[in-house]
Model the fold of this input.
Amino acid sequence: MKQYCRLFLLFILIGMIICQSAVAEDRTAKEKGPGYIGAMRVVKVNEWVSLREGPRKTEKRIMQVPLGAIVYNCTEDKKHFVKCEYNGVEGYILKQYLEPAPEYEPADTTATTVMMSIDEITSQGDIVLNWRDYNVSVLASHEIVTEKKKSTEVLRLGCFIDDEPNWGHVETAEIKGKYDMLKAFIAGTAEDPQVILFDGEYGMSMIDMLTGRERWMLRKDDCPLGNAAVVAVSDSGIIYMAGTETPAPTAVSPEGKVLWQARLNDPDLYDPYEIKLNLDTIEIKYASGMEHAYYLVTLDYDGDVADFQRIEIPGDET
Done:
């Protein structure tokens, strides 16, 4: 059955070469003009505040923005209103109901759809993904580019059929710490493999292997995963991740829904480097800055902590 499904996938892919499509909408870093105050959180309301068409109380209400919600690309208005964006919709909210939320400020990232040859990907940076199934392959390289004392991560990602480009994508992010923010890996199932594009400061999206189009997007404010996330994918397509920024391991369904986040708030847990999926448990190893030891966290498949221990690594006795 698996072989039949894979052959069917290949026939569809071959037929789609003539109608290649974009990975996702191109994304550029927002211009931060005069009055820009960044991301903000809705406060001091019982349930919601109005997002209005203009900076006046008499303007038509576009939608209700709930208490605690994060609004983006905020700019101060002279009439005590803030121009902002919520769920992709622009409008105005009274400033008295907002407070700064810098932890949700999106990073300076860009995303561009571009067709690349295999050589263009493999000749730039380190190969971080090299997947092939019959005549279909997915390649990704990761590079750090420094210009004028500013360092930027560059992730080049492409899908190929018979080594000819099917779709391609370039993601960039300004480096703000010691951990990598950009990753690409294969998820889905053996019968329906898909590509995951991960930006620790922006979000995670699943890319359709056939079309190169975005199937779903999980933004950072919906599920903060941190940078340098480690990943394991089950046979059923569930994605298990742990990141540096928020150490809580997270399970994401093949449809892009957060199934759970484990209750781990221990500041000693950071820098995860391995996730192992056992029959009944999930094991996650955290380096946490230790040279000859690591923390081993064991979870059940509901996200509950089953065990937590420090493991000593035997030193060189010679």
